[in-house]
Amino acid sequence: MEFGVIVFPGTWSDTDCYVAVTDNVGQQARYVWHKDTDLSGLDCLIVPGGFSYGDYLRPGAIARFSPVMPAVQRFAEDGGLVIGICNGFQILCEAGLLPGVLTRNAHLQFRCQWVNLRVESTDSPFTNRCDVGDVLAVPISHGEGNYYADDSTLDSMEENGQIIFRYSEPDGRVTDSANPNGSRRSIAGICNRERNVLGMMPHPERCCDPLVGGEDGLAIFRSILDFTERVSPTAIG
Amino acid sequence: MTVSQEALDELALSQAEYEAIVERLGREPNSLELGLFGSLWSEHCGYKHSKPLLGMFDAHNDRLLVATGSENAGVVDIGDGWAVVMKVESHNHPSAIEPYEGAATGVGGIVRDIFAMGARPIALLNSLRFGPLSESRNKYLFEGVVSGISGYGNCIGVPDVGGEVYFSPSYSGNPLVNAMCVGLLKIGDLRRATAGEPGNLLMLVGADTGRDGIHGASGLASRTFEDERELRPTVQVGNPFLEKVLIEACLEVAQSDAVVGIQDLGAAGLASASVECAGNANAGFRIDVSDAPRREAGMEPYEVMLSESQERMLIVVKPGRETEVRQIFDKWDLRSDVIGEVTADGLATILDDGQARGRVPVRLLTDPPLYQGDSSVKPLTGPELDVSSVPLPNYSPSECLSKLLGSQNIASRNWIYRQYDHQVQTNTVIVPGGDAALLRVKGTDKGLAVSTDGNGRYCYLDPFVGGMIAVAEACRNVSCTGALPIALTDCLNFGNPERPEIYAQLEKAIEGMAEASRRFDAPVISGNVSLYNESRGEAIYPTPVVGALGITENVHSHATVGFKREGDLIVLIGRDSLESDGSDLGGSEYLELIHGRVAGRPSIDLDLEVAVQRVCRELVTSGIVNSAHDCSDGGLAVALAESVIAGGLGAEITAPVSGRWDAALFGEGQSRIVVSLSADRLSELRAVCEGEQVPYLVLGTVSGADLVFGDLLSVRVSQLAEVHRNGLVDALD
After folding, report:
1. Count of Cβ atoms closer than 10 Å to residue B139 Cβ
2. What is the 3-state secondary structure (H, E, C) of A215-228?
3. CA distance from start to end of chain B
4. Which residues of B are catalytic?
5. Which of A23, A12, A37 lies closest to A4 in space, CA to CA?
6. Among all residues of chain B, which has the CA nearest to that of A180?
7. CA A19, CA A23: separation in Å to the nearest integer?
8. A-to-B residue pairs, Cβ atoms closer than 8 angstroms
9. DSSP secondary structure string for all residues of A155-185
10. Within 13 A of B54's CA, how many CA atoms are on the CB side?
11. Rounded to whole angstroms, how far apart are CA atoms A231 and A233?
């Protein structure tokens, strides 16, 4: 299958994502410049981390107006897979592809550290290889990852199984002390109602090789691969 | 004489220097021309007090790709077509005035030095010094600097993988903020800061030019200052987003054969960038300042030339090829303007809207007067130590260990580095908190180890030996990961060199560093000098900061600090007993923290040091040992504590102690590394040590949940971990 990695000015996880899906997962990938609109042939879009447009105004607030974004919207509406990581999550929220918003970490500092993610739902193209309750060790690196949505939105997301990951202890218990940024209900990753768009603050592309810390991120990229293979077996390279 | 003393003071020029300018020029310079001289003859750009001494860094090895000091940063060949570029630079004075922006623009500046050479920046390190956190001003500076590094570094996508921070009253009022950057490139992609042939075009790209930072090089970095408020406008404001875009655009442009040279605009802005490029090509240049995009109307040529607005680069382009270069910058939404051209006349000609406003020979600007100090003067040093005058403390060994582990200088730096993205680019094999950071080089099995070090207290007590130890420790950190030190970069932070006893400190420290650099076959490939670090008439501790680069051919075979397996033997490399005459308490963290004294003379045997490091690398790369950690601040006991904390395993030390227990536990004798290994591999360790004639001592075993040192101390590892983890956080509360 082929991944598309979108590059905005200020994006910095583009290469990391590219390396993860090619070197570590063995698939095809190409970069998509934010002024391009041609997404043909792509099976999954990655909106990577970074500081698109310097996070000026608000993270993702300017990137959402980039020329590529209407194409991303159509791609998602047509059922294409989209995964937004860190700044990518922020952009997808700003663009209205995902509910809620990411605000400044509750303690007001940037955080780069390993966290544990409890898998809350496996009914998604991104977690079908996991079991509910699995705990993945994945790094975070952000200053504005504090997920917020109002109660009724959160309730309906819970009902629809849209919460994909929560910050947890290594044994899977969801506690305040395991929540690195103050996110409501310890939310680390969510999907849309249609389940084909995922946003997550942690960086799965940073843990696809044991030499640099771990391999738990592979579960997500391999889930995407399995899903794509089932839907469209010919797309697999 | 038509120039006022006030005008000269602003440029940090002396009357004698002014007279030299008049004599060499054959006339009085106008104010624009004088500004050019002031900037380029400043200590920061011209190294007029330090250049004669820097020649002592004469080590070479065949990895060196460009002559030291000739380019923006040093370059070494790491094999298989790859090269590494690195440099460390100070931003002390701006950070003392405005810590967030001072530190942020320090990071920005050093990163530009690296990508100007066509290298992708792959790692940042920071070496920081502050006064004690008990003073609110120091706390403000510390928090501001950390957040400035975090704010800028995180945004540009370069991992911040290491460094060190120390606190001492010596740095109150004059903190040190040294930023180091490492870059990676294919050798064929190397770019030079050269103007090339006459007719080439000078293109200014990136930010517009404003009135900020004028006299940064001369005023801020090249003299002492008492009233910081008047200098606040000389500190620039960084835009890390623009920097990130500049990195990508310049690396793309660097691939084009339309580009002849690339130079960043740092201290003294356009003046220094254009003069250096032209000087490197023995050429002249003509710049029309009206072609430079400016932030406000009415800027004088003087202001345009000396502005230190950040995030700007000078690109030298072949004539007629400017459109294709501009297209790349357009793609990145970056402004690019041709502002002048290279000339054959050897003159720096500055025009404003076609009218010549200044014209001086480039070679005069690049040839400042050099000052040699009086070598007969003894350096300023601290008191000697009569060990018998130091009583055993009223605290128990366990209490002393806890105090040291929780002290500002030894406590965990996690509070700092968790605010820095240290993993982006997914190369970080050993993260901050160990002896050195280790990065993989994708597509190869190679690893690069990087570390910074520099103990100002040692250098204050003995600048020559302190200089040697700074190099030895930085190399030792690298060796502990298994990597071979191959190159050094340095930042020399000293007081006012016009004071003979300070100049002598500088001279002795460089002598010591140069000696150690030769012995490690690790040449100093780049560096920076920061003088005039004084406040309230007192110089800081002489503080040479050394950045070391090491290489390993097999990144998979490396060592980290923590003990790995219950039952492993713990061995000390470099000593065969724990006997001490107490002299290694001199200059120690223990002596200052517990006894309130800074005294004594550090010492090092470079023969032993080199051999110990060779042994350590052999033990690590051949997989004999499971961990390695050097003894530095706080001595053996702190090294052991750090290894048990990192591994989450206890240790029982059974080797006998004779003489003073405080010296055995906390003395800071050099050339010692603690390793752990499976008992069945001890004979291999013995063979390696004997082969190098390096002494070793079996200390004990990894076992239990406590750190037990004979009958001297016994503490829960969890308790040590808590003290270590909270030390810095508590000091900030």
Report:
1. 17
2. CCCHHHHHHHHHHH
3. 57
4. 44, 91
5. A37
6. B418
7. 5
8. 87
9. HHHHHTT-EEEEEE-TTS---GGG-SS--GG
10. 23
11. 6
pLDDT band per the 50, 70, 90 thresholds, residue A203 = very high
| Active-site residue, from A93, A142, A203, A208 | A203
Comparing CA positions, the residue from B148, B186, B92, B192 lying closest to residue B541 is B92
Q: SS3 string of A59-126?
A: CCCCHHHCCHHHHHHHHHHCCCEEEEECHHHHHHHHCCCCCCEEECCCCCCCEEEEEEEEECCCCCCC
pLDDT digits (tens, 9 = 90+) for A76-94: 999 999 999 999 999 999 9
Q: What is the DSSP letter of B220?
A: I
Q: Which two tokens stand for residue B170?
A: 């010596």
How is B518-530 classified by DSSP, letter by letter?
HHTT--EEEEEEE
Active site residue A205: yes
A86 tagged catalytic: yes
| Partner-chain residue, chosen from B155, B424, B425, that has the shortest CB–CB distance to A54 | B155
Architecture category of domain B382-426+559-733 in CATH: Alpha-Beta Complex (3.90)
* ipTM over cut 0.90: yes
Chain centroid to Cα B607, Å, comes to: 25
Domain boundaries, chain B: 1-41+192-369, 59-190+437-556, 382-426+559-733
Of residues B549, B540, B542, the one with CA closest to residue B492: B542
Question: Of A130, A205, A207, A208, which one is the catalytic site residue?
Answer: A205
Question: In the structure, what pLDDT confidence band is assigned to residue A237 with cuts at 50, 70 and 90?
Answer: very low
Class of domain B59-190+437-556: alpha beta
To the question of pTM greater than 0.90 for the whole model, the response is yes
User: From the candidates A17, A86, A130, A191, which is the catalytic residue?
Assistant: A86
The domains spanning B1-41+192-369 and B382-426+559-733 adopt the same CATH topology: yes
Give the CATH superfamily of B1-41+192-369.
Answer: PurM-like C-terminal domain (3.90.650.10)
Instruction: Give the tens place of pLDDT for each residue, B329-366.
Output: 999 999 999 999 999 999 999 999 999 999 999 999 99
DSSP conformational letter for B223: S
Q: What is the mean pLDDT of residues B496-520?
A: 95
The residue with greater pLDDT, B10 or A152, is: A152
Q: What is the mean pLDDT of chain B?
A: 94
Residue B568's pLDDT band (cuts 50, 70, 90): very high
Alpha-carbon gap, residue B33 to B89, rounded angstroms: 27
> Residues B248-268: pLDDT tens digits?
999 999 999 999 999 999 888
The DSSP element (H or E) to which B501 belongs, if any, is helix B500-519
Taking only the tens place, the pLDDT of each residue in B209-241 is: 998 878 766 655 555 655 554 555 567 889 999
Which residue is listed with tokens 């012995």? B519
Distance CA B255, CA B249 (A): 10
> Strand (E) positions, B168-289?
176-186, 201-206, 259-264, 284-288
**Measured between CB atoms, does A10 come within 8 Å of chain B?**
yes
- The Cα B537–Cα B601 span in angstroms is 25
